[in-house]
Amino acid sequence: MPTIAYLSNLFPSPVEPYVIDEIRELRRRGVNVVPCSARTVKPRLDRHLHALAAETLYLQPLRITVLLHAVWVSAAKLAILSDFLRHALFQRREAPARRLRALLHTFLGVYYAALLHSRHVDHIHVHHGYFGSWIAMVAARLLGIGFSMTLHGSDLLLDPAFLDLKLKQCSFCVTISEFNRRRILMDYPGAVPEKILVRRLGVDDPESKRPSHQRHSTFSILGVGRLHPVKNHSFLIQACWLLKRRGLRFVCRIAGDGPERQWLEGMIRDFDLQAEVRLLGQLSRHQLDEQYDRADLVVLTSRSEGIPLVLMDAMVRRKPVLAPAITGIPELVADGKTGFLYQPGSLDDFMARIAFVMNTQSALGPLLQAARGHVLKHFNREANLAAVCDLFHPYLKSQPTQVPDISSEIASATYENPLLQ
């Protein structure tokens, strides 16, 4: 049975359902998938994720004896890793601290290769282009197999790390929007265009599962996203303050949790918005479905995004959406046709669009139907999931690469270590 090691920064994660979907689809096709996580999962998980967590191979916390063996193998096979090390040391476009992390992650890549050795992995895939992709790249080199990666948004647009080398070394790179593909080819002219492949995310059609929405007298705004600076929820809270000053009746619910929660709670108190703005925390899928059903408008205020699932979820439910005209979002939201876009950073434009939706709710039927049709045609979860998984099959029984397979050396270096058996 062909085997893929699938590495994520944190797995399983309730905010990244597409990773779980891809693993399950590959398994349905007869592929043995080893789910791997660079970090240890937090104990708070939905019940259905516990089984996935129990079978996941975690790189952390590090086991000192395994790490020492990894250092030994790195020294013994320095020539094989030399281009990675040279790139980490002398890539001037990267900050010194990041170059140091790349050196450390090289050792983690050897560590990861040792953990995978007995599993006879044919290919490594890594989701996101953060430090996990460097670890996967190193491990694949040592095991003499290919690796691939998926790029979303921040890992390409805000925090790209050594992507020039990763794009050169990978078998293929999946990205979720045409905008991202154009950006990759523009910023990394050495990338092979045929290896940069667009495969969109998608959502299911909940039409037969949800009750009809009962409209309330108070206009309901919904924001969904991690409470993190990149999601820019403070922008939404400022807009709510202005709406209240103008005497408009509304309620704004924000679903999600994260490091900015305390600060956002302070903003809500300072603006006296306790009656209007509610932080709901992390919600289950069922709870989130209920929030979509109650919403009159779903908003996104992020500084950077791929193509967000939250917008797809809203549009397929015939909910109007308002989002910034950035990155790949216009591939999903055509302004005035399938939703509404605002000028990034402009509170005035954001407010004007909210007022327009408030005043024209009864006339938005054709737009909402067009939005639903657009999602079902181009962002269908089942079809897009199949298209992603199709990419892996040519690499599962590929010929050995020109890089020598040193898995036997890894095995001999770790044979006496029971932690690796």
Automatic annotation (TrEMBL):
SUPFAM superfamilies named among the record's database cross-references: UDP-Glycosyltransferase/glycogen phosphorylase
UniProt keywords (A-Z) are: Transferase
Q: Which InterPro entries match?
A: Glyco_trans_1, Glycosyltransferase_grp1
Where does the record locate the signal sequence feature? Answer: none
Q: Which GO terms describe its molecular function?
A: glycosyltransferase activity
Show where the Glycosyl transferase family domain sits.
208-361
Any Pfam family: Glycos_transf_1
* This protein's name: Putative Glycosyl transferase group 1
Q: Which organism is it from?
A: Candidatus Sulfotelmatobacter kueseliae
